[in-house]
Amino acid sequence: MSSPFPMPGTECGAELEHLLQTGTTSLGETPVFLGRGYALSVYRCPASLAHPHRIDIR
Protein backbone atom coordinates (compact mmCIF):
# COMPACT_ATOMS: atom_id res chain seq x y z
CA MET A 1 0.00 0.00 0.00
CA SER A 2 1.13 3.50 -0.67
CA SER A 3 1.74 5.93 2.14
CA PRO A 4 -1.00 8.40 3.12
CA PHE A 5 -0.90 11.93 1.74
CA PRO A 6 -1.84 15.26 3.39
CA MET A 7 -5.59 15.97 3.52
CA PRO A 8 -6.93 19.49 4.09
CA GLY A 9 -9.36 19.85 6.99
CA THR A 10 -13.04 20.51 6.50
CA GLU A 11 -14.37 22.59 9.41
CA CYS A 12 -11.36 24.44 10.82
CA GLY A 13 -8.72 24.17 8.09
CA ALA A 14 -6.39 21.92 10.14
CA GLU A 15 -4.64 19.18 8.19
CA LEU A 16 -6.38 15.87 8.86
CA GLU A 17 -4.48 13.06 10.62
CA HIS A 18 -4.18 9.63 9.08
CA LEU A 19 -6.06 7.32 11.43
CA LEU A 20 -6.38 3.94 9.70
CA GLN A 21 -5.43 2.20 6.45
CA THR A 22 -6.51 -1.21 5.24
CA GLY A 23 -6.31 -3.09 1.98
CA THR A 24 -6.55 -6.56 0.51
CA THR A 25 -6.05 -9.32 3.05
CA SER A 26 -6.96 -12.97 3.50
CA LEU A 27 -8.95 -14.82 6.11
CA GLY A 28 -7.42 -18.27 6.12
CA GLU A 29 -7.45 -19.36 2.47
CA THR A 30 -10.13 -16.85 1.44
CA PRO A 31 -8.87 -13.54 0.00
CA VAL A 32 -10.87 -10.46 1.03
CA PHE A 33 -10.73 -7.56 -1.44
CA LEU A 34 -11.65 -3.92 -0.94
CA GLY A 35 -13.16 -3.02 -4.30
CA ARG A 36 -10.71 -4.32 -6.88
CA GLY A 37 -7.73 -4.45 -4.56
CA TYR A 38 -7.75 -0.83 -3.39
CA ALA A 39 -6.57 0.59 -0.07
CA LEU A 40 -9.00 2.43 2.21
CA SER A 41 -7.66 5.25 4.41
CA VAL A 42 -9.57 7.07 7.18
CA TYR A 43 -8.54 10.57 8.28
CA ARG A 44 -9.70 12.60 11.31
CA CYS A 45 -9.43 16.20 12.45
CA PRO A 46 -6.90 16.66 15.29
CA ALA A 47 -8.70 19.81 16.51
CA SER A 48 -12.06 18.23 17.34
CA LEU A 49 -13.74 14.82 17.19
CA ALA A 50 -16.96 16.67 16.30
CA HIS A 51 -15.48 17.63 12.91
CA PRO A 52 -16.28 15.21 10.08
CA HIS A 53 -13.81 12.51 9.10
CA ARG A 54 -12.76 11.77 5.52
CA ILE A 55 -12.37 8.47 3.73
CA ASP A 56 -10.05 7.95 0.75
CA ILE A 57 -9.99 4.85 -1.47
CA ARG A 58 -7.05 4.37 -3.85
Output the strand order for the largest sheet.
1-4-5
Please identify the structural class as seen in this structure.
mainly beta
- Uncertain runs are none
Beta content comes to 35-45%
Shape type: elongated
Q: Determine Rg (CA atoms, Å).
A: 14 Å
In short:
Helices cover about 0% and strands about 35% of the residues. The chain has strands spanning about 15-20, 25, 30, 40-45, 55.
SSE arrangement:
Layout: E1 17-22, E2 25-27, E3 30-32, E4 40-44, E5 54-57
Antiparallel strand pairs: 1-4, 2-3, 4-5
Characterization of this structure:
With 58 residues, the chain is mainly beta. The chain has one domain (17-57). The protein contains no helices and 5 strands. It has strands at residues 17-22, 25-27, 30-32, 40-44, 54-57. A 3-stranded antiparallel sheet has the order 1-4-5, with no helix packed on it. It is elongated. The mean pLDDT is 79.
Question: Which properties best describe this structure?
Answer:
58 residues, mainly beta, 3-stranded antiparallel sheet
